[in-house]
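Help needed: design a sequence for this.
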C-alpha cells in the first residue's frame, strides 16, 4: 500500500467512509464505491488494490488528521489535566468536521473485516494508550489525579468512555453536538479521577 495519499485517493477514502456510514462494511464494495463516485471499477483499482487497502488507508488518513492536534497540544504550557482534556477535545473537533471518517475508527463491524484491519485498529488504540500513559502518570505524580485508581484503569475509563460516546454519535447519525457532549463527558470523568 502506498504511504503517500493522492487527491484522488482522498476522494475515494471520503466516499468510502460515507458508504461505510450509510451501508456498513458489507455495503462497502468496489462496485458500490465506483457507482457512488460515477467511476469505473477499474478506476478505483488504479488507486487501491482492494477494499481492505481502502479501509487501511482510511484508518491511516484519520490517524494523521486526528493525531496532528495531539502533538500540537503536547508542546503547550497547559497543566497535565488540561493537556489530556485538550487532546480529546481536539479529536472531537476533528470528527465533528469529518463525521463520516469517525466510522473508520468507531465502526462496530470493522474489527471483523480482516486481520490487517484489526491489527491497524489495535495499533491506533495502543498509540493513544502510549501517549496517555506518561501523561496520566505525570498527573498522578503532580497530585492532579488520584493515586487510588491505577494508570491503566484511568486510561480505560477515558478511552472507553470516549469510544462509547463516538459510537453513540455515529449510530444516531451525528444528530448531537459531539464537541459539547464530549466536553461534558470529559469534565465528569475528570471530577471522578482528580485528586
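Sure. Designed sequence:
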Amino acid at each position: 500500500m502506498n504511504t503517500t495519499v493522492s487527491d484522488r485517493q482522498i476522494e475515494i477514502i471520503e466516499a468510502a467512509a460515507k458508504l461505510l456510514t450509510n451501508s456498513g462494511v458489507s455495503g462497502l464494495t468496489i462496485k458500490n464505491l465506483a457507482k457512488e463516485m460515477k467511476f469505473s471499477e477499474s478506476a478505483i483499482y488504479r488507486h487501491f488494490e482492494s477494499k481492505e487497502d481502502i479501509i487501511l488507508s482510511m484508518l491511516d488518513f484519520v490517524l494523521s488528521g486526528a493525531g496532528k492536534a495531539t502533538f500540537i497540544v503536547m508542546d503547550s504550557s497547559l497543566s497535565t489535566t488540561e493537556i489530556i482534556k485538550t487532546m480529546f477535545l481536539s479529536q472531537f473537533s476533528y470528527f465533528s468536521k469529518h463525521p463520516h471518517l469517525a466510522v473508520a475508527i468507531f465502526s462496530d463491524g470493522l474489527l471483523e473485516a480482516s486481520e490487517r484491519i484489526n491489527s491497524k485498529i489495535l495499533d491506533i488504540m495502543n498509540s493513544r494508550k502510549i501517549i496517555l500513559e506518561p501523561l496520566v502518570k505525570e498527573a498522578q505524580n503532580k497530585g492532579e489525579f488520584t493515586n487510588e485508581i491505577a494508570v491503566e484503569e484511568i486510561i480505560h475509563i477515558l478511552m472507553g468512555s470516549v469510544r462509547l460516546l463516538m459510537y453513540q454519535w455515529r449510530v444516531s447519525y451525528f444528530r448531537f453536538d459531539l464537541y459539547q457532549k464530549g466536553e461534558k463527558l470529559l469534565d465528569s470523568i475528570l471530577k471522578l479521577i482528580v485528586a
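The chain has one domain: 55-193.
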